[in-house]
Amino acid sequence: MRIISRLCKTLTSIYPSCRFPNQDVPTPYPNMKYPPLGDDDIPFPPYGGRHIVTMMPGNGIGPELMAHVEDIMRHINAPIDFEKIIIQDGPTLQTDLNKAVMSVKRNGVALKGTIEPNFNLAEFRNPNVEIRNNLDLFVNITYWKSRIGIKSKYQNIDIVLIRQNTEGEYAMLEHMCKPGVVECLKVITKYNVEKLAHWAFQFATRYRRKKVSIVHKANIMKITDGLFLKTAKEVSKKYPHIKCNDLIIDNCSMQLIINPKKFDVILLPNLYGTVLNNVICGLSGGPGLTAGANYGDTYALFEPACRTLGKNLVGQNRANPLAMINATISLLFYLKKHWHAKMLKDAITKTLLIDKILTQDMGGHHTTIDMVNKIKENVSLLYN
Predict the structure, then answer these.
(1) Are 216 and 228 in contact (CB under 8 A)?
(2) Which stretches make up the Isopropylmalate dehydrogenase-like domain (predicted)?
(3) 3-state secondary structure of 335
(4) Distance (Å, rounded) from C-alpha 149 to C-alpha 364?
(5) Closest CA relative to residue 113, chosen from 98, 133, 99, 127
(6) CA–CA distance, 73 with 303 (Å, rounded to integer)
(7) Whole-model pTM?
(8) Cβ neighbours of residue 325 closer than 8 Å, sequence gap 6 or more
(9) If we measure between CA atoms, which residue out of 315, 316, 294, 295 comes closest to residue 303?
(10) Which residues pair with 52 in a beta bridge?
(11) Terminal C-alpha separation, the chain
(12) What is the C-alpha separation between 203 and 165, in angstroms, rounded?
């Protein structure tokens, strides 16, 4: 192995464009394991050189897109095996959720579509939130960047949005006090805000981001959002090399639409993060492009950034597969399968910029299968 490694390094020094599977391919920002997790941590030991990943197709267009992901992973010979968990609405829902959580705890990592909640249940619990809460995936991170060749309102967006993923209004603590009167509890804890803020500032440090903007509504919710703001600002003092400011959520929304270039890293509670996530999505090209990641101390879950069902696209071969494929690329980087991730990234770049294969939401006329087939074709063309 040492001889092979030396040979690869020698050939690479002579031919810089060459890369070999047993070499570390430089991980393109930001699709890799983030702080506070260490660079040398492997999430869970692979079995026979292969990783087992929990797959939750979800509802809507999720199952169709997951089938394409499986096809692509076979095509690039990624050492990944999927443990598929189907979560069905009905009497087996809680059992299915328990299976999903136990599967992620066993495998350490998951790829997920959006699961449709049943709002008619007497004791309504959103299954997507249940999974994140049970795994304590306290960080949700999305990276929004304008893409060359794809129409969007702005071409200068470069924003990282980091939000608390398990608290706030998403603690799902609401009840009916009496008929016609309901109450929702918003939970903010100093411990979890500190943990999230350190994570965000470590991320900014690691990836040389210059500024973190704390978003809140402390002018109205002085205790809950006040605690979030105060705690995050206290943490910011430990990172003097990173600029820090704060904005009220409504002002932040306006500023994003007027001039998104002024934002770098945005740190905010759960509900506000959901809203701004979709605002930036609309500014940067739509919901079919960007992936999101959820991290805890032990587990990671990858999914499209905009958690939409796309029910109007089911069975029509019109859905944009890139958000789910990009979530898969993030998964590969997380598992340190850098070579396979780079293959997909390069193939997607050629598909979009050179071949001009664009689905309808990107201003093109191509189908889902057109894009998937072209990505596979470009993998073979570039790396075989």
Answers:
(1) yes
(2) 52-375
(3) coil
(4) 11
(5) 127
(6) 16
(7) 0.86
(8) 68, 69, 72, 344, 348, 375
(9) 294
(10) 81
(11) 23
(12) 16
* Contact partners, residue 67, CB within 8 Å, separation at least 6: none
Q: What CATH number is given for 25-132+285-384 in this structure?
A: 3.40.718.10
Query: Which residue is it, tokens 């850098």?
Result: 338
Cα→Cα distances 338→23, 25, 71, 79, 90, Å: 9, 6, 19, 12, 40
> What value does the mean pLDDT take over residues 33-53?
63
Cα maximum dimension of the chain = 76
Q: Cα(44)–Cα(1) distance, rounded to whole angstroms? A: 23
Q: Find out whether 142 and 287 touch, Cβ atoms under 8 Å.
A: no
Confidence at residue 130, expressed as pLDDT on a 0 to 100 scale: 92
User: Edge to edge, what strands does the sheet with 211-216 contain?
Assistant: 80-84, 51-56, 109-112, 300-304, 291-295, 139-145, 158-164, 265-268, 211-216, 243-248
DSSP 113: -
Parallel, antiparallel or unpaired: strands 291-295 and 139-145 = antiparallel
- The single residue listed with the structure tokens 């809140």 is 216
Q: In the 8-state DSSP scheme, what is residue 362?
A: G
Q: From 62, 66, 61, 59, select the one nearest 82 (Cα to Cα).
A: 66
Task: Quote the pLDDT of residue 23.
Answer: 35
User: What residues does each domain of the chain span?
Assistant: 25-132+285-384, 153-270
Task: Tabulate helix, strand, coil % of the chain (nearest 5).
Answer: 40, 20, 40
Residue 43 identity (one-letter amino acid): P
Amino acid sitting at position 307: R
Q: Which two tokens stand for residue 264?
A: 């770098």
Q: How would you class 260 by CB atoms within 10 Å of its CB: exposed for 0-12, middle for 13-18, buried for 19 or more?
A: buried
List, for residues 78-133, the tens digit of each pLDDT value: 999 999 999 987 788 889 999 999 999 999 999 999 888 776 666 667 889 999 99
Distance CA 243, CA 275 (A): 24
For the domain made up of 153-270, the CATH class stated in words is: alpha beta
User: Where do the DSSP E strands lie in 188-235?
Assistant: 211-216
CB 220 within 8 A of CB 248: no
Q: 368-383 vs 338-353: helix axis angle to the nearest 10?
A: 120
